[in-house]
Design brief:
5 helices; 114 residues; mainly alpha; globular
């Protein structure tokens, strides 16, 4: 019987410790991207439509926003967040140019502009 010298950290269902989740170190759990894709996909084979990409970026931004409430001086992550915002903005402008109805549906489904 082998005993470990270090105490094991309690993990959540997604395999991350409570401390990791509290610090915002977790980007997305293993199941979360699949859930977001299933919710916003156009058909069963769709994984890369603008709607899905915007939904995934929005979810990452929500997680980063929570991270910044506890870590206001994390300027390196803030720069990454600004890149994500820019990427989402470009995807939304593309979607608006392609189909205004899909653009409006995406905005209302994600609760972005009021």
């Amino acid at each position: 019987m082998e005993s470990s010298t270090t105490a094991e950290k309690p993990t959540t269902l997604s395999g991350f410790t409570e401390q990791d989740m509290a610090l915002g170190a977790v980007k997305l759990s293993a199941m979360e991207p699949q859930d977001v894709i299933k919710k916003y996909q156009i058909n069963s084979q769709d994984t890369g439509s603008p709607e899905v990409q915007v939904a995934l970026l929005t979810r990452r931004l929500e997680i980063l926003t929570k991270h910044f409430s506890t870590n206001p001086k994390d300027h390196h992550s803030r720069r990454g967040m600004m890149n994500i915002i820019s990427q989402r903005k470009q995807l939304l402008s593309y979607l608006k140019a392609e189909s205004v109805q899909r653009y409006r549906n995406t905005l209302s489904a994600l609760g972005l502009r009021k």
